[in-house]
Specification:
Elements (H helix, E strand, L loop, with lengths): L1 H12 L4 H9 L26 H23 L8 E5 L5 H6 L1 H8 L1 E5 L8 E6 L2 E6 L6 H27 L1 H4 L1
Parallel strand pairs: 1-2
Antiparallel strand pairs: 1-4, 3-4
């Protein structure tokens, strides 16, 4: 049993540390070894019984919530050290976030997770795992400056669109 565990671990590690695993492989009992070298051994396959689709779906929801919270922080240029709150609205991920609030706080660098109540005015909102999440940004972002920045970005993108439409309207460019 222990030899089997060691053999599987060596097969997993072989692409990373080939010389060490080959040396250890050679010291294993000959029974169960493939053709004298770990290089000829098949890579371990996962057992179907190890799959837990419910746990996978739950962690995907947690990842989606954390990703959305971090995207809000990044888009609004809020420093990672800033203590943010997260409001979770009604939706399928609400119970999941409740169960994994500590994980969401640690990975998303969130101070507090609020499950009940509405998000305060001046919050950035995103949809994660079918659930609306909100982060109040008013105290961390100058909303007037952010509005001016977004208007400037809209104007720049409008000019880019006009430029690309001009190129697409040119028959020689399309050819």
């Amino acid at each position: 049993m222990l030899t089997g565990v060691l053999e599987q671990a060596l097969r997993l590690l072989h692409p990373i540390t080939p010389f060490v695993t080959e040396e250890l492989w050679q010291s294993l009992p000959a029974a169960g070894r493939a053709d004298g070298s770990i290089m000829r051994a098949t890579y371990p396959e996962p057992h179907a019984g190890w799959r837990q689709p419910d746990a996978d779906a739950e962690m995907e929801a947690v990842i989606d919530v954390v990703r959305s919270a971090r995207n809000i922080r990044s888009e609004m240029n809020i420093p990672m050290k800033a203590d943010l709150d997260l409001w979770v609205g009604e939706g399928p991920a609400r119970a999941i976030v409740t169960r994994h609030a500590d994980l969401v706080k640690r990975l998303g660098r969130i101070g507090r997770v609020h499950i009940d109540g509405a998000a305060p005015h001046g919050s950035a909102t995103a949809v994660a795992a079918g659930t609306e999440i909100s982060i109040p940004i008013a105290e961390h972002v100058d909303l007037k400056a952010e509005s001016a920045r977004l208007k400037k970005e809209i104007q720049r993108l409008g000019q880019e669109i006009a430029k690309l439409e001009g190129k697409l309207g040119n028959a020689s460019f399309i050819e």
